[in-house]
Amino acid sequence: MAPHKAPDSSRRSDRSRRAIYDAALALVGESGYRRTTIEGIAARAGVGKQTIYRWWPSKAAVLMEAFLDLAARAAEEAAPQAGAAEYGIPDTGDLAADLKLVLRATVDELNDPLMEAPTRALTAEGIVDAKLGAEFVEKLLDPQLALYVTRLRAAQEAGQLRPDADPRIALELLIAPLTHRWLLRTLPLTHAYADTIVDYALGGLAPRS
Fold this sequence. Notes:
By secondary structure, the protein is mainly alpha-helical. The chain has nine helices and no strands. The chain has helices spanning about 10-30, 40-45, 50-55, 60-80, 95-110, 115-130, 130-155, 165-185, 190-205. The model is unreliable at about 1-10 (pLDDT under 50).
């Protein structure tokens, strides 16, 4: 008779955690942040609410971790497409092409229903909940913006941008138009729009003769 093998608690925990992530993101996308509850997440995930409270102190903590996990998975999928072993903005020597590649990937993420609904919900709630908004910026946005700063500084060192250009302001010329069009739904968010943003931004940032 084969020896009895005890259940792998780590695998069970990983499955439960993944189910909770998926449930939290689905519910916040369907019902909004405020209507999403720990009880609802537990019911959707098929776990007891005490399981959630054992791992997270609040609904906000659950959703933030779930969203960070979603963003990390999206980054891992994007890395091979960017031709890099690690997620980041590639440096091929062609700044415009590198930025267009990344902004196109951003357009695809923002248009992806899996990402769009929870991103909108957390963005909206972060406007009225200062603590959640600050955490969203610190844990998600700032690390992503740092990648742009790194790439733009490398472009400055290569003489492709004005040496007095502030990389933090320069990246906002790239990111802000995408965010504005996506958040307010003023017009379709497309690859062509992303390319135009890069062309316009770099046209204003080119070294002065």
